[in-house]
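Case study: Propionyl-CoA carboxylase alpha chain, mitochondrial.
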Amino acid sequence: MAAHGLPPSLSRLLFAVKYGSLQSRCCALHSKAQYSTVHNPGEKTFDKILIANRGEIACRVRLLDTLINFEHMNSHTCKKMGIQTVAVHSDVDSSAVHAKMADEAVCVGPAPTSKSYLNMDAIMDAIRATGAQAVHPGYGFLSENKEFAKRLAAEGVAFIGPDTHAIQAMGDKIESKLIAKAAKVNTIPGFDGVVETVEEAVKIAQEIGYPVMIKASAGGGGKGMRISWNDEETREGFRFSSQEAASSFGDDRLLIEKYIDNPRHIEIQVLADKHGNALWLNERECSIQRRNQKVVEEAPSTFLDPETRRLMGEQAVQLAKAVQYSSAGTVEFLVDSKKNFYFLEMNTRLQVEHPITECITGLDLVEQMIRVAKGYQLHHKQEDIPINGWAIESRVYDPYKSFGLPSIGRLSQYQEPLNLSNVRVDSGIQEGSDISIYYDPMISKLVTYGATRAEALAKMEDALDNYVIRGVTHNIPLLREIITHPRFISGDISTNFLPEVYPDGFKGHQLEADKRRELLASAAALYITAQLRSQKVLGGLRVSSAPVECNHWELCVELGDGRHAMEVTKSGDVFTVEVDGGTVEVSGQWNLASPLLPLTINGSHRMLQVTTHTHTHFQLRVLSKLAAELNSYMPEKVPEDTSSILRSPMPGTIVAVSVKPGDTVAAGQEICVIEAMKMQNSLTAVKQAKVKSVHCKPGETVGEGDLLVELE
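Here is what the predicted structure looks like once written out:
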């Protein structure tokens, strides 16, 4: 709209009219669950809040349904509190959903985060220009930056979060550990100081005893963290952790502590006001992780008994009170197999996974943060905090290459499963949105709720099956595998779940014989339905070489490297398929224009998604018997020899190039480092060879598949 010269305010109004349904996407539906508080319209807070973030969290602060009654979708946190919102955005985010949804939007710089969402000067200018009285920082970016909070305080602008003392005390992993010890919180053995050099890191690691965890002092969210099992990994981990920490947080200080092998990652949500009141809002199980970043979370945990939960909650509150904490915050613990728990860190902000706590407690955490920032006391006592039901969150993003290198692209088709009950989707995108190399690759947070864990898991399975994402790769198949895995269902999990279950990375669902027959039969039925439809024009028949009355077909379906001959007959809406020695009956509403096809296969209900993109879960090709015979004469494409070339596995920015033409490299030696979505990845040689040519240099932006280095 803006391209045609419309004022920004009118553009946002037209956007709101056109995409009004977006305002109800962040909702959980459950007829029995209710929030324990109703907003008091006489309780004055702020007239205008600036949201210093982007994507789904910016939309959540502005637009989340507060779930006062789960059957109503039109009441949103800031909106229902009578608060106007200001969005900030980079130039590439000018058309982003969070920018369009806000009452006002201000560009704060170009795409790189250091020049936009971390640009305090530009954000302060936006606050002054719009007259915002308070700032909600979301998570990441400036959410735990004490200097930003100080600058806001100096100008009389409220920071919707804790005060600078708590941010500094808990944001520094070294200081927070010392404070936790003093507050009688269980802590992990380690070095209580900043590690200055690589050699010092090696010495400390040897003294603590391997394995050790190297992590950013100012970090969080898995950034700047490495596990080291020997001296060489310590040297490499020190380098990468310091670089990632500097890039993500502007602070490259590191600490080292003992790595607790095979633990659970369980965190306690706390909420405190400025009057000395503090509560623990139960736990979240966050053990399903890859590269130290959470993938699936649930609340409550299957592992904790009431006594352990109480002890963890009380220690979390002790820590919050020790730093005079006031806002929503999270105390993270590692828990071993004997239910011993150790303080990991405290996040002085809203967590990504906060929705599952909202589901089981009935508290709107954003509303509580706003109230506390204005100076109100908490409404609740500890005995008021319930555990009602079970909630599960799946983080939707891309897991494929190397188990999680990021994917970028444009969402050519996007459909959230909000037609299902008990489903909530927190997202900041829509069909046509771009997933950029500059920001976190998460597409959305998919949350399901049930009276029991089994009910929440069944709802999650349905929601994943009904979630349509086209144009970028995504991890929905992996998420579905996780929640249906016997170990996950039984609660037998740890932070090593993914590497143990998928030691070579996730390769997709492995079909059993009966499920393979079902898939092949479905593809054949879909193919025939499409062929029959193509014979008709507005109800009439085209001239076709195929007899109109044909109800018997001989086909060949290719799946992977296999070819499967089959015979298909049709009676009414039912296809009967003979394939691989078995018989499969397939029926359904064959709406070929829909991305979702609900089918009945041998009496069981199935949801099928059909796409021509290369990232589909299963690639099938259906051929007539004659076409299959002729296809055997087609030459096969010879795969590229990748042993002598290095191509970029993802879009990103070259951080370092470690070789030059003429150098001899050994197998496993680092050739270059590429950064994407705030994570650095070392690319290595697969064999010993001499470097023939180098096609990249530090600072360059490269695309997926770009040639970086050639070897002789």
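For the exam, be able to explain this: The first helix runs from residue 8 to 18.
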